[in-house]
């Protein structure tokens, strides 16, 4: 694995290939301040991170895991990808498989007494932990017992004084949403309640924390459960919300320097050219990578004012590059009821066509299909989902797109 002293990276750029996919965690650029804040929060409580896709949340938590092991930090982190997990028994197996892998690597030391005892009630023969699976039919009604035994065995692990174990559940809300779409709402409700009870019971006993993150907000899942299943639980009222903002200028410029080592040439001042790229991309790593990819594939890797302009135009106008922007549009229709989704889209269309912030009163004059309460509800949702930012001016709330890049695309393609 590529290895370099973390503190040297800001002084010495290292080669990165432009990509819109995943990268090894030891090559993830920057985010030191965000990681420091996240570690501080996790000392006291569990955390939720909710961002729409391509904002960098997965890279952040993967780097959190990597550094916790590499630097032998007192907060050990284990990452789980849950998108695609189809049911509660598969969830237990996914958690168990990852934990067994971490144990083989020497990161964990767990006795697994609870898991083995539960397994032996159905399979009396001596069993090794590597052979345990809960996908068997006899465990179908015992998934809560299996999941509880798994987490409680973790709490009873051999650990150093003061050591905290953080379990990162990436795309947990997406997993639950898929369950709701497949008539598994009762399993989702029982899992939410079980996780809340385990978090509370084991917060101090086992020093276990959770990071729940996803490209769908947990509030979207909970709202549907309340509307359609009369769910009244507050499964995450003991967690702290963490918002991931764009990179700072230093990290974004350093990312450009690293990407430029992949065979790019420059005509002009390198720093000024790189600043043009990361400022247009609003310091979002995905879009910085995309601009470099476009210059590499369409302009032979020649970075100058003209190729930057053409790459920016392609990003906004080329339908082949529109997938990420389109999902911002499509997800509104997927996750919200039709009438509310229409109001949200109407608000975004209006804001895309005007400069600066708009007040609620101004928006009300243009959006006649919603009464005041409906407008405020749609605005609050768009603000919480981070499509919009808001400010208070003269005692009134004003809104605009959070990212000008998304506003430009929306105006050209949707408004």
Give structural attributes:
Helicase, Ruva Protein, domain 3, disordered N terminus, 3 domains, Arc Repressor Mutant, subunit A, 17 helices, 415 residues, Rossmann fold, five-stranded parallel β-sheet, alpha/beta
Structural write-up:
The chain is built from 17 helices and ten strands. It has three domains: 31-242, Rossmann fold, CATH 3.40.50.300; 249-321, Orthogonal Bundle (Helicase, Ruva Protein, domain 3); 328-413, Arc Repressor Mutant, subunit A (Orthogonal Bundle). With 415 residues, it is an alpha/beta fold. The longest helix is centred in the middle third of the chain and has 21 residues, at 185-205.
Q: How many helix segments?
A: 17
Low-confidence spans:
1-10
Measured between the Cα atoms of the first and last residue, the distance is: 46 Å
Largest sheet: 5 strands, parallel
Q: Supply the CATH class of the largest domain.
A: Alpha Beta
Assembly category: single chain
Summed up, the domain count is 3
Q: How do the helices and strands follow one another from N- to C-terminus?
A: HEHEHHHEHHEHEHEHHEHHHEHHEEH
Do you know the CATH topology of the largest domain?
A: Rossmann fold
Global outline: globular
Report strand %: 5-15%
Question: Quick one: CATH superfamily of the largest domain?
Answer: P-loop containing nucleotide triphosphate hydrolases
Average pLDDT across residues? 90
Radius of gyration: 24 Å
Number of strands: 10
